[in-house]
C-alpha cells in the first residue's frame, strides 16, 4: 500500500513519491525488457540457412513497438495519477487543524464530544451507546428521536469523568420497545494529518482515527 503523507512538514512526501515512482517504473518496464531480450536472442541464434520469415519478423517488430508504446503510456498515466493525488492533498492542507464530522471514533480528553445522532424517522425511541477503544460499552442513555446534535459529557454513573481516549458512538432506534436498528453516529474530530492511501485522500484525526475524505459530511473551525 503506497502512502503519501501531507502534514505540517512535507519533507517525507517527496521521498515517498520518488520511491513509489521508481518502483512503478521498474515494474512497468519489465515486460518491455523481457521482450527485447527474447527478440535479440532470436536474431543471434536463428539458422542462416533457414531465417525467420520476413512477414513473421515484421509482426514481431510491430509487437515490439506496441509493447514499447504501452510501457510509455503506463508510465505517463502513473505520473499523471501521482500528480493528481499530490494536488488533491495540497488542496486539503487547509483542513489540518479544523474539525471534520464523520462516523468515526472520537478523542475524549475531558471536553464534551459533539455527537450527531441519526435515529430512524419512524422510531419512537432512541438510545446513545458509547464504547471504549476495546469495544466495551461504557455508557448508554436515552436521547430524543432527532438528528439535532447533542453533547456527550463523558462522565460515568457516579459523575466522575471517564479516562481520556478514543470512544465510538452508536444510536439504537426502537419501536414499541423493540430494537429495530443500530447505526454509527457521526462525531467531530480535529484533523492532524492528511494522507494519500491507495490513491485516495485519508484524514487522520486527534487520537489516531482515520477516515476517508469523501466520508466527511461537515467541516468547521477547530476549537
Number of domains: 3
Q: Mean pLDDT score, rounded?
A: 77
| Main sheet specs | 8 strands, antiparallel
Q: In what range is the share of β-strand residues?
A: 25-35%
Kindly, what is the distance between the CA atoms of the first and last residues, rounded to a whole number of angstroms? 33 Å
Regarding quaternary structure, what we see is: single chain
Give the beta-strand count.
13
The helix tally amounts to 3
SSE order, as H and E? EHHHEEEEEEEEEEEE
Helical content band? 25-40%
Low-confidence stretches: 7-22, 80-86
Shape: elongated
Radius of gyration: 28 Å
Class of secondary structure makeup? alpha+beta
Question: Main attributes?
Answer:
223 residues, bacterial flagellum biogenesis, Immunoglobulin-like, cilium, alpha+beta
What does this structure look like?
With 223 residues, the protein is α+β, with helices and mostly antiparallel strands. It folds into three domains: 3-91; 95-100 and 188-220, no CATH class; 107-187, Immunoglobulin-like, CATH 2.60.40.4070. The protein has three helices and 13 strands. It has helices at 11-28, 30-45, 54-91, and strands at 3-6, 99-102, 106-108, 113-116, 125-131, 137-143, 150-152, 165-175, 178-184, 186-197, 200-205, 210-212, 218-220. The strands form two sheets. Strands 1, 2, 4, 7, 10, 11, 12 and 13 form an eight-stranded antiparallel β-sheet that branches. Strands 3, 5, 6, 8 and 9 form a five-stranded antiparallel β-sheet that branches. Strand 5 (125-131) and strand 6 form a beta hairpin. Helix 1 (11-28) packs antiparallel against helix 3 and helix 2 packs antiparallel against helix 3 (54-91). The protein is elongated and about 95 Å long. Keywords: Bacterial flagellum biogenesis, Cell projection, Cilium, Flagellum. It comes from Rubellimicrobium mesophilum DSM 19309. Residues 108-176 form the FlgD/Vpr Ig-like domain.
